[in-house]
Amino acid sequence: MMKIGLIGLGIMGKPMAKNLLKAGYDLTVSDLNKAAVDEVVACGAKAATNAEIGETCDLVLTMVPNSPQVKAVMLGEDGVAAHMRPGTTFIDMSSINPVASKEIAAELAKKNIEMLDAPVSGGEPKAIDGTLSFMVGGKQEVFDRFKPVLECMGASVVLCGDVGAGNTTKLANQIIVACNIQALAEALTLAKMAGVDPELVFQAIKGGLAGSTVMNAKAPMMIEGNDKPGFKIDLHIKDLNNALDCAHSVGAPVPMTASVQEILQWLHNHQCGQNDHSAIVKYYKMLTGLESL
To answer: Out of 100, 118, 170, 289, which could bridge 67 as a Cys pair, Cβ 3.0 to 4.6 Å?
Structure first.
């Protein structure tokens, strides 16, 4: 049986690990948070060091915050790649700069290790119920071989091109999500200030052209004042920084991305960085003096 190692058991990685176990895979895990490791081990995983994962696993998965962490885990001194056998495969499910994905893949290729970049969309709820969307970059044959593994964690698994294409697609996704949330916050604030119940506005428009998965997920949170993170503002800032970097390097105009990034940064500076990204509405509440929608 294929041996899989997963490094990174945060908000997303932990439920993803549990879904791999439910599917019957032989899973070994590692994380700096011992409680998270213990919880996944209680579900049937084995615990090991990163080096042991490199030595024993046929497939290594990572789900960590950003490019520096992926590089440190894989390519750092005594990194996982130093312990992986030729012919094994690395799939990075983190959302990072596509330039970094290509750099990591180039280093691994020297050791005859294949790589896919496979960031996800869907946040914690979809990680829990195994319906994430995977955007994948890499070779067709590697994708075909490991698609069933990703399908244990996601409802949609799409190959978007060569290594780096997965993360480019994820950046496009994050731009659309952030701009949707900002537009929603702005519209519901307008409704409230004009004396119309935001809940009724949401019910009235959600079935029309303005309706979206983002609206269905985030409008109720904004109206309830629920800022418990499914996806933190600080992580969205990270993604949009990567989007801006990538856009600047390829010459793509991204004025809306820059605008919503400034709002997210303002919220970070006002102690909201650990809130859900639907808390963009707090920016409008602070500007208008609204207590609630």
So the answer is: 100
| Close Cβ partners of 91 (under 8 Å, ≥ 6 residues apart) | 59, 60, 61, 62, 115, 116, 117, 118, 146, 149, 150
Burial class (CB in 10 A: 0-12, 13-18, 19+), 32: exposed
- Mean per-residue pLDDT, 189-218: 98
Q: What residues contact 39, with CB distance under 8 A and at least 6 apart? A: 9, 14
CA dihedral sign of residues 124, 183, 235, 96: positive
Residue 92: exposed, middle, or buried by beta-carbon count in 10 A (0-12, 13-18, 19+)?
A: buried
Q: Which residues are bridge partners to 174 per DSSP?
A: none
The 10s digit of each residue's pLDDT in 129-187 is 999 999 999 999 999 999 999 999 999 999 999 999 999 999 999 999 999 999 999 99
Q: Which of 14, 18, 126, 170 is catalytic?
A: 170
Residue 134 backbone phi and psi in degrees, to 5: -100, 130
218 is an active site residue = no
Q: Which residues of 251-284 are buried (b: 16+ CB within 10 A; e: fewer)?
A: eeebeebeebbebbbebbeeebbebbbbbbbbbb
Q: Is the pLDDT of residue 123 over 90?
A: no
Q: In 3-state terms, what secondary structure has residue 56?
A: helix
